[in-house]
Automatic annotation (TrEMBL):
Record-linked InterPro entries: CheW, CheW-like_dom_sf, CheW-lke_dom
Gene Ontology biological-process entries: chemotaxis; signal transduction
Compartmental location: Cytoplasm
Main location: cytoplasm
Listed GO CC annotations: cytosol
Entries under PANTHER family matching the protein: CHEMOTAXIS PROTEIN CHEW (PTHR22617:SF45), CHEMOTAXIS SENSOR HISTIDINE KINASE-RELATED (PTHR22617)
Domain CheW-like per the UniProt entry, residue ranges: 79-225
Name used for this protein in its record: Chemotaxis protein CheW
Family matches, as SUPFAM superfamilies: CheW-like
Keywords, in A-Z order: Cytoplasm
Length: 228
């Protein structure tokens, strides 16, 4: 497929998306009959379907650029995206591929007769009740360790795409998404036999911190076990 053909296809698909939220929805004149039911357009299936098409189109465009990119671009340093966050006094990194989003802290509603020590309860995520787990408990960290800081620190909730559905993991602080060189991660992974700690691929130096790189597959399996 030529570059012109690919771009034309992307443009055509974009034109086919009806952005009703900008006309009759929350960003328009609010005349949509479904608005009273859904409160906000982001809760509507029409909005979700449009978002999916947009993401599919973006993915297609990225694959197209990668396929037709000049050979010189392939020489760029390989990296992997990690979400870097803090629990107590420990900084951790988790690959962004298993992450749905990061949201502000919300109320956690405890559940009666819960059997898992890691299960904190449920939290409301976009109108749906989602299980909330303690990552401190899952990783076997010391819950009494705290960090004082002169700057303002905002706790966050990581929403992880677990095997059975989304799961909320409260964390003390989020630094953001960072691209870490694959060779750095490989070195940390190869020295993993010297690293203690649950679900850990390795430990690496990041900025002036010691960063624990989590094994996402082991962690997701532990999350599943905690919910069954």
């Amino acid at each position: 497929m030529s570059g012109l053909t690919a771009q034309s296809l992307i443009h055509t698909e974009a034109q086919a998306i009806d952005d009703c939220w900008n006309r009759i929805g929350i960003y328009g004149d609010k005349s949509c009959p479904l608005l009273a039911q859904h409160i906000h357009c982001r809760n509507c299936a029409v909005y979700s379907a449009a978002a999916t098409r947009l993401l599919d189109r973006y993915s297609f465009e990225q694959e197209h650029h990668a396929f037709y990119a000049p050979e010189s671009l392939a020489q760029k340093v390989a990296t992997r995206s990690l979400m870097i966050f803090r629990l107590g006094g420990e900084w951790l990194g988790l690959v962004t591929g298993c992450l749905d989003e990061v949201s502000p802290t919300q109320s956690i509603h405890s559940l009666p007769h819960q059997r898992s020590r890691a299960l904190l309860g449920v939290a409301n995520v976009r109108g749906a009740l989602v299980p909330c787990l303690s990552l401190v408990e899952l990783l076997g960290l010391d819950p009494t360790v705290t960090v004082t800081s002169a700057r303002r620190v905002m706790p966050r909730m990581l929403i992880v795409a677990a095997h059975g559905g989304p799961v909320v993991l409260p964390v003390d602080e989020v630094d953001g998404i960072h691209a870490i060189e694959e060779r750095t991660l490989s070195t940390a992974s190869n020295s993993g036999e010297h690293v203690s700690g649950k679900y850990t691929r390795g430990v690496l130096q990041w900025k002036d911190r010691s960063l624990r790189w989590l094994d996402e597959e082991q962690l997701l399996s532990a999350i599943t076990r905690s919910l069954t």
